[in-house]
Amino acid sequence: MKLDLILRVTTKVIIPFILLFALYVHFHGDFGPGGGFQAGVIAAGMLILYAIIFGVEAAQRVVPRAVVHVMVPLGVLIYAMTGLAAFYFGENFLNYAPLAHDPKHGHHLGVILVESGVITTVAGTMVSIFYAFLERGR
Amino acid sequence: MELYVNLLLLTLMAATVIAIIQQSSLFSVVILSGIYSFLMASVLIVLDAVDVAMTEASVGAGISTVVLLGALHLTRTTALKSHQRVFLGLFVSVAVGTMLMWGVLGLPEFGVADAPVHTHVAPTYLLESIPETGIPNVVTTVLADYRGFDTFGETTVVFTAGIGVLLLLGGRRRRGRGAGAKDAPK
Amino acid sequence: MNGLIDPEILDIVVTGLSWFAISAGSFFVLVGTIGLIRMPDVFTRMHAASLVDTLGAGLLIAGMMLQAGFTATSLKLLFIFLLLFITSPVATHAVAQATLEAGDLPELKVDRRDRARTAGDAVETPEA
Description:
The complex is a heterotrimer of chains A (138), B (186) and C (128). With 138 residues, chain A is mostly helical. Chain A has helices spanning 5-27, 36-54, 56-62, 65-88, 103-136. Chain A has one domain (5-136). Chain A is built from five helices and no strands. Chain C starts with 6 loop residues before the first helix and ends in a 9-residue tail after the last helix. Chains in contact: A-B, A-C.
């Protein structure tokens, strides 16, 4: 269904800002409210808006189903690898202190890695659920 | 002042829930549950939990509404009339609600400094967060650092939910429009 | 310039303006909500509801910006207002398009069709 000009133009204008806001919420989770879950949901919302206005085929040209299906377990894998990296240094699981030259930087790096895993899984899950719903209803 | 704002928001939430029960149009129910999530997010902001409020607003009022509308697209949009007796459900709900309220009366007051929840590990987190990690947001450090294992479990839960939905819905490849996709799910 | 304006009077003026803006914004939100409930038709209700997001939110955010002063918070508030200002009329437009596509025409007391009918001209059908 070819939607109206106003909707298409406004969506094209506003989608980069939604993505920017999602990344802002993710990376500023250290300094303000935010973090991986909210950012993943906002990024998924951006892609869902694109799919609603321009159609599922256009959205799947941008982010294919295979990519989204890989993103879902990839986040959990990143999280688990960050935890297992501490085994390499002889510490407990998910101890972030040995990950860098200094325990403080190690904690910071660990939090960043872990949050990136969370955003990947959450965004991938939301988008793949939406794709599954849309493809079912043809 | 906070008390009145909280009372107003909770009254609006109760009104929304009553409206949800009365509706038979599922589309209105979905929009009303989005409104409910917004009101819940406002209550959480009044209680000074901004991270949780942001998550509640984005998930409950954003994604949840869209996914429920997608589910409505696959099924019907008006609720079926239920043929069950209402008295058993009413009795169970009233009994459980009364027990919960009686239990809540036994909890310490909200925000009292020597309640057990504030004296166990919370002071350690609050005092040690900035010297140990250097991250100003204590919620993020508790979520991702001190309680990282619980967040690992949460991420696995989201992963499992996604895999479950994909197994239920996405399995049929479209070998022709309408041939395999229009079967009713069991 | 700094010696000419008394900082206390400036403070009072800014606070008074922000009170006025916030009360005016709340008034328009109230008017828009009452219109949303009392209007008879989908299209007139949308017209009343659009008041809330543009004028109501605009005045409320202007009042909050005056209270916040010249900081980063004002810039964030301005961005929120721009987002509301751009997306809510588009959302109203989308709802109106969807309503017309579903076949629900606006109910009008007198419209061109009646006047054309009484004058004996051909009745134009509106394009959906």
